Amino acid sequence: MNAEAQRKLIFTPEEASLRLPLVQAIVKDIVELFQNLNDRQERIAEIKRLPGASARDEESAYSEELIQAELDIENDLEQLKGYVSELIDLGVELEDPGMGVVNFPALREGKEISLCWKYGEEEIAYWHHLDEGFSDRQLLFEESLKRDSEENDDDPIV
To answer: InterPro entries given for it (predicted)?
Structure first.
């Protein structure tokens, strides 16, 4: 990645909306994979609680399933990292992989904020301060964000 691409992207609501279809597809994969990983980790925990499952040898009836499940989890964790890297390359920050919440860096009244979107929402309609999260989201007023981006001398990188 070159130096310019490494600069943090600052989005207007319009710019974030243009990226939303691709972000939606990536976040869909993240949410599904994250749920699948959690389900398998719970299954491993259940198997390990079964009588005789703690013995990790050829004799255990569960050892093959445990080994395969653990390998699958390792592979899926790598795939999840790849999806997160795709979001980062787009300038988007993953806030919650389970709910599918992402943030697009933006400006409001000269201060950096996050445009916040959750998987399943039709559009980017919320924002929050950097030191806040999903539960602190506020309804987005595009006029004020648009005005701030126009007043900013540094054009956002898209």
So the answer is: DUF2203 (IPR018699)
